[in-house]
Model the fold of this input.
Amino acid sequence: MRRTAGVLLALLAMTACGSQLDPATLAPTGARDGGTAGEAGIGADTGLPAGDVPAGGDVPAAGEAPAAGTSGGTAADPAAGSTGTGTAGKNKGKGSPTGTAKAGSCEGFKNQTGITDGTITLANVSDISGPVPGIFESAQQAARAYVEYFNSQNDICGRKLSLLNLDSRADAGADQQAYVKACSDAFAAVGSMSAFDSGGAATADACGIPDIRSTIVNPERQACKSCVGTYSIRTNLISDPAAKWLAAKYPDAVRNAAFLYINAGAAPVNAKSLAAGYEKAAGWSARYIQGIDVAEFNFAPYVQQMKDKGIRAVVYYGPYQNTVKLQQAMQQQGFKPDFYLQDPTIYDKRYLQQAGAVAEGSYVFSPNDLFENKANPEVQLYLSWLNQVKPGAIPNYYGLFAWSATRLFVEKAIALGGKLTRASLVDAVRATTAWTGNGAHTAMNLSTGATPPCLKMLQLSGGQWSQVSSGTYLCGTVVDSGIGG
Done:
């Protein structure tokens, strides 16, 4: 598995001239429709006081649609109902906002950067504006959804959570400026997703802010000591289940494979690492490795090259908009490989809407469970609260991992209680070796940040995604491609 769509949509945003945005100016975000509420907390986003959700009843257990309500204190009196043992509220246990974390004593709890008597401020720094507007809006929506879910019935030592939304604008400079703001105004950052996350890496590292991200996409961020990607991946480490599963099903096709990618940023090294990893892990043969420029509109020459080389398997890394162009060109030229594989970038309703019939049969390797799985309470909890925050919002795996990141913060902060500091939180997160986000995704080793060895194989059939690999997750080993490490 790769650095995936965090990089891929970034690459679409990387025009020949680069971003023309002023990195010192942070675009206002946070309105209910992703608009212009400013560097706002939850209260500004919803028109409600921080910590409140619309009145009308209790929040149900995991898996049910959220009927909003409050318990365990209000914005005016956040300590009301506090037990003094880390959290208040009646809903506890695996599916609750606090999970199974055993609440630590609040004795000795101190206000510090981002923490007042009433609130703990968390930042989310994601690409909202820029060349591809809203590319990672789902990450902010998900972080906000979890904060509202938590605030509806819990607190941390008498404090409610407040979310500070910042826009990294698909620009390394803007990411860096946003983390200057986060370092000074927030206790931690949760669920952030930026294509150019290298920009704020040194800033986050220097101030020691716990940066629990949706996904890390650049090596500089991977090197940040206080930064963790909830979707844990390393450039040179390739998990082999997808390669082996496809090799067993299409033994001849994998010996005649093409690896195509957007020709910008980190995509070339990622594609070459994947090709080398698949060759090493499962006997694939990459006969055609080719980048396609960001602004390219004519995909026909690349399709003709694949036809001339006898390609029978196509692997592509790029935004779903370009996926559609490639698959349409393949159809127009009558080129039908034995299979087409992509990362979860295309596991998105908008891809299906644009691609139509040309998407049929496509494979995806996925580190998380399907949104269609009604039997997964955590996934359904994410979907229900996402719809509460932004009715009609389209879920994707950036959002799911941002939700998971916010849960991770909550569970570790609850357990630390009065011992909560930036340093102690980083240590607690780094000690986590099998984080599943309460069953939302495969286990991630946050201690090493290594690529996980397990995934699901999904396939589109009849316009619907379904899991085609056996078991809960298909597990194997992780191989070092020797590229990008």
